[in-house]
Amino acid sequence: MSFDDLPVDVGVIYEGERVRGKDMFVELGGPKIEKKFELALARSMDEVEDERITIIGPDLKDMKEGSYNPFAILVEVAGNEIEPDLEGVIERRIHEYVNFIEGMMHLNQRYDIWIRLSKKSFEKGFNSLEYLGKVLIRLFKSEMSIIEKIQVTFITDAKELENRYDEAVNRYNERDARARGLKDEDVDTFYGCSLCQSFAPTHVCTITPQRYANCGAISWFDGRAAARVDPKGPLYEIPKGETIDDFRGEYTGVNQIYAEKSLGKVKEVSLYSAFEKPHTSCGCFEAIAFVIPEVDGLGIVHRDFKGEAVNGLTFSSMADTTAGGRQVPGFHGISIEYMRSTKFLQVDGGWERIVWIPEPIKKRVLEFIPEHVRDKIPTENDVTTISELKEFLKTHDHPVVNRWTELEAEEETAAQVATSEDGAVMVPGEFTAMVGGVGGGIEIIFKNARIYAEKVIIRRKVAGEKRK
Ligand code: SF4
């Protein structure tokens, strides 16, 4: 496939390229624009005019340098094997293909897209969305042979985008609702996705009926359809294998896939825990479940949350800690749809462990929060500091408060760590210490250590297991 008629290069080597604010010509969508989306729709053959590119609103050359613009991409596809179950997977490929373009960066998905074009690529002549349309059409047709006809529409006109926005959101909701009837126990195959390995080399999304992909864009049905039509593609079957522990979501088949795809870096995963052997987090997660050690609970912050969460950290600083394809106990990337699952963080206590959530997300998932805790989980409108949070949880009798007495007893026990005759603290086995803090640091592993120190401060570790 040739892109010689384009003013910039196109290829996998550009995937992962970042366009910093100072280097950008324009931003399309992104956090400064309220409404934006990308949507793939399965159409019948006569509804699609093959390779048609339509631009509704100002083109790139009409935009002001440094500007932030409304943006939507509509990809309509047709073919004998095209079915609505494939829409989510086709849509997710937009992320990958845009990132193949020299000087273009695409982040996130669905109603959250964030695209930047660099000044350098604009100056080279990439001054029209026509070029973007050509890249998408050629890549989709060459990589997904089931697509027989494709047309692409870009919308940069705010009014037109507003008119079509609800249709897109309704389509996302329909897809999500469809996957809700099925339980993880009802199937013997999950689906894996490694699309984000270009950014997070050890990351694998395990997509189950009750644990939606981290990006919130791919359901179990989408995974099944994609693996069927393109078995060599980035989405594949994960046979569950033997059940190690169904409450924790541990399966031999899942562990085997992680060991293979992460090249041995991740060996065991517990699908329903944010603390113990958690599912890996790439960088596309819609939200983060983050530990608040002071109250032994978990907060949730989503990508669009402006300002600081109750722990004083922004989404982006916590995202640095969470992302990269690692298993970071207590910083766990999740989708919004996973919050609607009855298996949502069930190992850690589920909604009874959630102690803070932004109002917009709480509203979106309200009917899925068990009634007995609904009013006990504060938002940014109720509390803004940890001390206010503690007070709120106490006065509202949040279930997490019961854990505090158990923790006090645990701390006393921790203080009784054995010391040898020469005064060294004995730490049998292996333990890991992080030097640095949120946003980075180094990991030091001690084996059978003897520690000499004037003073030893032992901080409580938050246990992930639900207490009985
Ligand atoms: S977040 Fe997961 S499902 Fe979504 S594209 Fe990345 S790897 Fe695939």
N- to C-terminal distance: 59 Å
Rg, alpha carbons: 24 Å
Tell me the CATH topology of the largest domain: Ribonuclease HI, Chain A
Mean pLDDT: 89
Helix proportion:
25-40%
CATH architecture of the largest domain: 3-Layer(aba) Sandwich
Number of domains: 2
- Output the CATH homologous superfamily of the largest domain: Carbon monoxide dehydrogenase alpha subunit. Chain D, domain 4
Order of neighbouring strands in the sheet with most strands:
4-1-7-6
Bound molecule kinds, no repeats:
iron/sulfur cluster
The geometry reads as globular
Main attributes?
468 residues; Ribonuclease HI, Chain A; four-stranded mixed sheet; 11 helices; 19 strands; disordered C terminus; binds iron/sulfur cluster
Explained architecture:
This protein has two domains: 12-178, Bifunctional carbon monoxide dehydrogenase/acetyl-coa synthase(codh/acs), Chain M, domain 3 (2-Layer Sandwich), CATH 3.30.1650.10; 182-403, Ribonuclease HI, Chain A, CATH 3.40.970.20. A four-stranded mixed beta sheet has the order 4-1-7-6. It has a four-stranded mixed beta sheet with strand order 2-5-8-3, with helices on both faces. The longest helix is centred in the middle third of the chain and has 21 residues, at 158-178. The chain is an alpha+beta fold and 468 residues long. It contains eleven helices and 19 strands. Helix 1 (87-99) packs across helix 3 (129-143). Iron/sulfur cluster (SF4) binds next to loops. The site of iron/sulfur cluster (SF4) has 12 residues, from loops.
